[in-house]
Predict the 3D structure of the following.
Amino acid sequence: MMNKIICVVMVLMITSLLPLVYAQLSLGEPAVHKLITINVGDQGDIHVTHEIKEARSVVHVETIEGTLSNLNVTDVEGNKIEFGTTGIESITGITIFSSRDDVIIEYDLHDVLDFEDGLWKWDYFNLETTKIIFPNYIDLLFVNDRPVMLHDAVGITCYGRSQGVICDAFIEYVIDEPTMNTEIKWEDKKFIVQVKTLTEITSFNFDQPTKRINFDVNEDNQLITLIIPLELLWSPYEVYLNEKKILKHEFFSNETHSWLNFRPDNSGSIEIIGTTVVPEFPIFAPLFVGIVIVIALQSKNRLNLR
């Protein structure tokens, strides 16, 4: 009798687990993506669009991790198509039963980006090629610790398996990043060095004889970007934290300025050393002195001939 009871209990347990297991299984082959487009909003909210190639058989699409809402599945003409969803507490996948046309899947995501000390962060991983579009006032991103200047671009493209790679991007950006404009006077000239960072910068100084910019950083692991006039201090640069050389990125320059970024692991004293520096005399001064010397020598020779 005891054996029968145990068997019944085991059967009930297995039966009760079946819906749970089935809910986590995906039906069909992975869908063939054309592109994933992600629009990032002001407050870290996200709108996702999957462009899927037509499939006459059942295919499955994994959604991006996060709290999903406003799901909409249509063909390219906007016609509704049949689909199912997988997931227990939230939707984690979409099953498309068949479609003669390409399929568009759209949804909103929340609780995806992390906001910490003024910095938005997202560790994004996907097998598919993904275009990520940011608000138009964002001009500087950091992708895997490397600065990316957007300029007139609306975002970035992270290539996936269609290009033989995997999209793996740790993205960071700041909205309304504080900018410190420091005026440096040398001779009769004035130069503005811009510093963009969330940390406090103190004791900013320019030393012309040693071709150095110095300042102190009061927090650890903070992104710092400088926009340096080339006439003041020419690139390339070397950056030191407490007299130890650290990694830096010179990621953009134009005819007048150079953009320099680094991320000190610790607080301390920063030194930026350039290759050339604003001269102590105007550039034409040595030429003027040389001309005067030549004229003087010529005059002396004429006097001697007489």
